[in-house]
Amino acid sequence: MNTQQLMDLDHQYLVQTYGRNPIALDHGLGATLYDLEGKEYIDFASGIGVLSLGTAHPKWLAAVTMQAAKLGHASNLYYTQPYAQLAEKLCTRSGMSAAFFGNSGAEGNEGIIKLARKYSFDKYGKGRGTVITLHRSFHGRTITTLAANGQEVFHQYFFPFTEGFRSADPTMEAIQEVAGHDVCAVLLELVQGEGGVLPMDKEFVQQLAQLCEKRDWLLLVDEVQTGIGRTGTLFAFQQYGIQPDACSFAKGIAGGLPMGGFLVNEKCRNILGPGTHGSTFGGNPVSAAAGCAVLEVLDDATIAQVKEKGAYIRQSIEDMHLPCLGKTRGLGLMIGIDVAEGYNNKELCAKLNVAGLLTLTAGTGLRFLPPLLITQEEMDKGLSVFHDVLSKV
After folding, report:
1. Are 137 and 149 a contacting pair, CB within 8 Å?
2. Are 271 and 346 members of one domain?
3. Domains held by the chain: number
């Protein structure tokens, strides 16, 4: 099968919900991928931040293969080793107390929203279920997480949306303006991904944490994109001097297999009991084994290198002085690049993809989320394509 045949098959049998690039990826290793015709691509996207170890990492591959040969699925009616081992690793390294496993980031965020509302209901009764989110935030594509998104572009078509959300700018004054007696939690990304790779101000986050403690609101951190080493610590909240009541995770946790979930602190570990929440595929043995392999590879020393790699890529781009670009920003290997006025970020991204550098957009800029194990050679190859393409725009 060639690329055109695959595109025809897709168009004939798939609901057309994605704006795919005319690229048919077939195989790869690390941060280097190849299409059906054998063309090489440097991966600065990692499946939207999912391929934390890159493609076909040997330890990940061995863990997945071994577990698939033993037990592919069991459901949560029984105990299996991988999910319990993964929960121990996550809690030990994050300082959190307990884990819940699901399938996706949106499901993880739905879970912590439910957690916050039940915490408040158990303690205060009805009428205290509103969750404050931030403008430009993105928390998922289910009906509830669409409602939570702090971007009006997502609040269309699918009416009626779930009630109980209010959004504010990331300032204490704005939070106070939308606060009320009906609030039970604040949900935020410490680096807004889809909103444009926008890191939160550390002082604001710490003040917000203090306000949540004072008002007995749960502090919920969406770590779907920022978690599992992406920003240079296992979770981004570890760089902000806070300990959330709950944080969601997904994307990079299983290195390419579907997995998501959330972690809770000691205060919240018993809020959800039997019958209040569940997931058929949550904690799947193969995905959990993959997650264990990911965390074994991503030890503290390896994650520390993420900051160095991110700094190298950002400085290299700044030094290019390309007219179509502005400043860079981000944490670790979660990098945003401003696109200058008069240029279209989607058009620039498409040119880069076709030329052999897989990239993403975010807000009105470009976004890089390369595998955390990307090599110096792969970074330099990608940056060379980046310069060659955009210097001619």
Report:
1. yes
2. no
3. 2
pLDDT tens, position by position, 108-145? 999 999 999 999 999 999 999 999 999 999 999 999 99
Dihedral angle sign, alpha carbons of residues 85, 235, 134, 19: negative
Residue 285 contacts residue 82 (beta carbons within 8 Å): yes
Strand 334-339 relative to strand 32-35, pairing: unpaired
pLDDT in tens, 147-185: 999 999 999 999 999 999 999 999 999 999 999 999 999
Tokens, residue 341? 């006025």
- Specify the amino acid at residue 68: A
In a 3-state reduction of DSSP, which class is residue 101? Answer: strand
| pLDDT one-digit tens code per residue, 49-95 | 999 999 999 999 999 999 999 999 999 999 999 999 999 999 999 99
Distance CA 143, CA 124 (A): 26
Q: Which of 295, 292, 201, 296 is CA-nearest to residue 239?
A: 201
State whether 105 and 18 are in the same domain. Answer: no
- 280 conformational bin, left if phi > 0, alpha if psi -120 to 50, beta if neither: alpha
3-state secondary structure of 253: helix
Round to whole Å and give the CA distance between 341 and 337: 13
Give me the phi and psi of 169, to 5 degrees please: -65, 155
The pTM score is: 0.98
CATH of the domain at 184: 3.40.640.10
Q: Which domain holds residue 72?
A: 59-297
Claim to verify: residue 130 and residue 195 sit in the same structural domain: yes
Q: 288 - beta bridge partners?
A: none
**Position 270, amino acid:** N
